[in-house]
Inverse folding.
């Protein structure tokens, strides 16, 4: 994880292509540090307040799994090749979950690299899917085919929720801001794991948390 975040701080991408390039998503040292701290904060609160959920998350992606992500992005005919270090940092935190139903948000179950890439490939061949969805990789699944995404072509990507039925994305800020939003939910008990080990949340409080978050990130 530390190695991946170091790469984020120094990475860049130069390309004069007609196809949209897969962005290297360069971040400053301060931005990379904020991302590392957000992951550490979320891990801490999950380990303390949602132990079973934390245990059910998969280990960080291996070098081979990260290489598979790079190969998938580089091999997609819709894009010029590149390395997306923000996505690599996300999967370098936890590569999905080992147990189905291990949600981090009401509409957000973490996907592995293999699952995210397969979903992405399927989207490329479906008619009438908008361009944003086709150039974005899903990181959290909502159980109905939609979920939270990162645009692989954006140099400064923001995490967004998207539904095929509604092409208007709902943005949750940078990856660090998004991870912080999840952490806040668990810290305040808005998001929780119940006595049976099932993910739960308070709907009214969650809506209020979202509005507070949107205001904080300047939406």
């Amino acid at each position: 994880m530390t190695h991946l975040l170091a790469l984020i701080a120094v990475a860049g991408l130069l390309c004069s292509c007609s196809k949209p390039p897969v962005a290297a998503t360069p971040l400053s040292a301060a931005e990379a540090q904020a991302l590392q701290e957000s992951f550490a904060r979320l891990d801490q609160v999950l380990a303390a307040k949602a132990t079973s959920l934390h245990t059910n998350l998969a280990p960080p992606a291996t070098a081979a799994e990260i290489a598979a992500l790079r190969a998938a992005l580089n091999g997609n005919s819709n894009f010029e090749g590149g390395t997306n270090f923000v996505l690599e940092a996300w999967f370098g935190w936890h590569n999905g979950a080992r147990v189905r139903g291990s949600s981090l948000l009401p509409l957000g179950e973490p996907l592995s690299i293999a699952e995210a890439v397969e979903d992405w490939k399927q989207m490329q061949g479906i008619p009438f899917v908008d361009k944003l969805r086709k150039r974005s990789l899903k990181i959290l699944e909502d159980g109905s085919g939609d979920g939270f995404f990162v645009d692989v072509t954006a140099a400064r990507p923001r995490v967004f929720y998207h539904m095929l039925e509604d092409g208007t994305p709902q943005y949750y800020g940078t990856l660090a801001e998004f991870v912080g939003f999840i952490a806040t939910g668990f810290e305040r008990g808005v998001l929780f794991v119940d006595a049976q080990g099932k993910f739960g949340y308070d709907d009214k409080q969650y809506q209020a948390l979202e509005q507070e978050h949107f205001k904080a990130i300047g939406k």
User: Anything to note?
Assistant: The chain has one domain: 2-216. Residues 2-216 form one domain. The chain has nine helices and seven strands. Confidence is low (pLDDT under 50) at residues 4-18.
